[in-house]
Amino acid sequence: MRTVWLTSFRRTNWFGIAGIWRSPKWERTASSGSRRRVLCIGAGGLGSPAALYLAAAGVGTLGIVDFDAVDLSNLHRQILHGTDDVGRPKLESARSRLKSINPEVHLELHDRAFQAANGIELVSAYDIIVDGTDNFPTRYLVNDACVVAGRPNVYGSIFRFEGQASVFASADGPCYRCLHPEPPPPGIVPSCAEGGVLGVLPGVIGTIQATETIKVILGIGEPLIGRLLIYDALRMRFREIRLRRDPDCPACGLHRTIRELREIENYCAPAPGRDMTVTELSTRIGAGTPPVLVDVREPHEIRICSIPGSLSIPMAELPYRWADLNPQAEVVVYCKSGGRSARAVAFLHERGVTHARNLTGGVLAWIEQVDPTQPKY
Asked: Of the residues 40, 192, 249, 305, which is catalytic?
């Protein structure tokens, strides 16, 4: 017996996208599937395994949206890229790797950020969307674009040791806003860069996303429509939450108010006058007029890299150590990439330390622009 690919790619005897032996019914399904267009938003932790398996399965056209470059700190979880790709645009790395798996897959690479200005256009050009985003503003934009354009959203998210997956914005199911109508306030939920993630976790969730995409393409099985799958890696347990479409959902409800994309303004932006660039900080230190530097990261992070002369006050200790700071002094707070320190600066301003400022980009920006001799994580 022979196998069927969604494209004409038959270099091995492994299954094509359906993973089904040849039969008239599956030939028709596979032929239809080979014309389907899938868009992966992000070529990072989730997008890597999803794109790899979708290309290997024989998806006819695979689009990828990403504007980032490969960093050494990505490699424990972003298996689409290798050490030779460090510093290379992720789209170029993705092209090489995916073509090596399936040279006949048609790749469409979009070197841009997914934004309100281009979201509808990007989503409308594809049949199924795989959400591999890593931040709330983009995740809500992807959801809203899928609802407006009428495209299923194969959702995945990861944090520390837990992952989630579902299929949103299908014809009969709920969308992401039915579960979470609005984003959490800025700073409430740390990013993966701040909170960390188990390296193999995105592999599990991204593979589930690829599985759900294949099921939706072929119209087989029971996709995760109306179901949120939650994976606990520490306990090795899966559990499921049933979801229903919210009639009051602003995106897909009976009286929807979201009919076009809108950016979530100032979601991660520091308050005016409360930030300092690493270049400005370096100049101040070189001139002998440094501000008081406060590092709010955890001790294990500080052992990897730091800015010389910093005072360590981890975020958890800030509520009872902030009084150690002179309220009249100029204070610059930093963390890994700027999220925790922005929250710390807001906390300090509320308590009268009005000259506190946030170091834009955190210690990672310092290493990239000022001191590249230090390791990154």
From this structure: 192
- Spell out the alpha helix ranges (H) of 58-191: 90-101, 119-124, 136-149, 176-179
- Within 10 Å of residue 37's Cβ, how many Cβ atoms? 15
CATH entry, 275-369, from 3.30.499.10, 3.50.50.60, 3.30.70.1150, 3.40.250.10: 3.40.250.10
Q: Is 40 a catalytic residue?
A: no
pTM, 2 dp: 0.72
Residue written as tokens 């660039």?
277
What b-and-e string marks burial along 156-169, b requiring 16 or more CB atoms within 10 Å of the CB? bbbbeebbbbbbbb
Indicate the pairing of strand 311-312 with strand 162-168.
Answer: unpaired
- Tell which residue, 201, 205, 189, 90, has the closest CA to residue 137: 189
Please, are residues 114 and 47 in contact by the beta-carbon 8 Å criterion? no
Q: Dihedrals φ, ψ of 246, to 5°?
A: -85, 120
Whether 192 is catalytic: yes
Q: What is the pLDDT of residues 256-267, one digit of tens each?
A: 999 889 877 545
Question: Contact at 8 Å (CB) between 54 and 6?
Answer: no
Q: What CATH architecture applies to the domain 24-242? A: 3-Layer(aba) Sandwich (3.40)
Each domain of the chain, given as residue ranges in start order, spans 24-242, 275-369
pLDDT in tens, 298-337: 998 899 999 999 999 999 899 989 999 998 999 999 999 8
CA 257 and chain centroid, separation: 26
**Helix, strand, coil content of the chain in percent (nearest 5):** 35, 20, 50
Using alpha carbons, list the distances in angstroms from residue 112 to 41, 42, 143.
10, 10, 18
Backbone angles phi, psi at 127, to 5 degrees: -90, -35
